[in-house]
Structure formats: structure tokens, C-alpha cells
Amino acid sequence: MKLCTKKAVEEARERNLQLPEEKNGLILTLTNTDGKKYGGMSNKPLEEFKEFVEIASRADANVLEIGAAYGTPYLMETFKKESMGHYTACELVGDQLRILATRIEELDPSKLSNLTLVEGPFPRKEVVDHLQEGGYDAILALHVFQFLTEEEVVEAFKQVHRLLKPGGKLFAKVMTPYNGITRPEVLQKRAEEVQNYLVHKTRPLPGFVKNALARSHIKDSVTDDLLKALGITTDLHVFQFDRDVMKAFLESENFLIEICEYSPLNFPPFALDGREHLTIVLQKPN
Description:
With 286 residues, the protein is of the alpha/beta class. 31% of the residues lie in helices and 21% in strands. Helix 1 packs across helix 4 and helix 2 crosses helix 3. The radius of gyration is 19 Å and the shape is globular. The model has no long low-confidence stretch (mean pLDDT 91).
């Protein structure tokens, strides 16, 4: 559902909602209505996807961020620009949007009119119905699609294609199974699933993990205390992305692939060999 930006600011102040303190390099996310936590938001300066900010900074631009949290560095950098277009922030947890709105109001009250807030789980109907078909010059999704089911991953990319303008771009980053904490036997099974998909191109896409915290999935060296420090305290499913699978799938979805490559995560123990993240930049054909 859509939230009124001014009312979101009022509600945040009435309830004294504050941006949480940064811990271990992350600002931990709030508990969702389903009782689950989904890790945290990095508040580090921009390192990549600067093209997204360049697009968003055009006066005639219309952009969407899926999983905007409390206001990612990309969102905050855009709102600091003298010129900018319209920015829709979609987020699962409504109180995070309320905190985001207060940050923008404190930065520049006049720019609240450049902000639309949409609360709910992308890509479900109750969210996408509030978004503009063929309306966005760029979409940003940082560490969002990894919390979806296989069916939702497929639907998410279909919706991205529907929502982008011709020539519009998606900028995304997701987690892979090659993250330094997954058991070797699990990785071997995944490799077999990947090869089977690449040969037969039949769904389901390999990558879904029913419970990311299951001890049958995680190395014994990764302690519960470490997971708690990272904000991962509840059982939750995840989808782990393989580069070759995604290249084949995205081509079948009629995207032009600019980037679909592994990138490193320098955050022990989530570090292995430089394949911990998958960085994706796609364009909808004109």
C-alpha cells in the first residue's frame, strides 16, 4: 500500500522512530510483521551503480528502489542532488519507510514531493498494483531478490520487465551459494543442479534454500552468535543465485544483459573466492 509521506513523518515523530545504530558495519533491519528479520542495511558510501544515481538525478527521471530500507546510500545521495526526478521507495517494513521519510524531511522538506512510499512485499499484487507499468527509467534492488522463493524470483524479473520503460535499466545485487559458510557437500549438490538446468532449461531454477539457518546447510564454524550479530536470528528461506543460470534465464526473459558477474564480499566469514555476490545490470530493449 502507499503511504502519505507527510503522514509518515508525523507518525515517525509521534512514535519516536529513530534510525538504529550501526553495528558490525550494518544497520540492522526491524522485525517484519511475519516475525522475521532480514539482515541489515549498509550505510557505506557508494561504490558501484553510480549510473543509477546519475539517472535518478535527471529532472525528468522516474526511478524505483525495491528494498529501500531506512534510505540506502543511493537514495540519500540522490536526494542530496540539486536536481532530481521522482523516486519511489518500496519496502517490506513500513516503519523503515517512516524513518526514511523523516531523513528526507530533515535533509530538505521540499523534496518530500519527489518521494513516493510503497509498503509491502515485492513482487506481490498488493505492491505491484501501486507501481507504474512501463514507467521507470531505472530500478534498484540491493539484496532483495535473495529472500524470495523460486516462483517469486521468476515473477520479480517479469515485473521488472513490465515496470521498466523501453531502454530502462535494472541494477541489482544478490547473494550466491559461494559465500564461505555453506557446506562443501551442499555446494556439490548445487553444482549438479546448475548443470542440469543449463542442459535442459527447465524450472525450477536451482538456488532455493528452505531454511538458510539449517545446520545441514551451514558450516559448523559459523556460530549462532555470529549470525545474531548480523541480524539473522529467525529461520527464513533464501534464494542463492548462480551466474550461469541467471544469464540463461534473463536472456529467455528478453533482457539485454550488460553485467551478470560475480563480485567479492570482503566481510568474514562471508568471503570465499570472490564469488560471494552476483552483480546484475540489465536493460529492457527499446
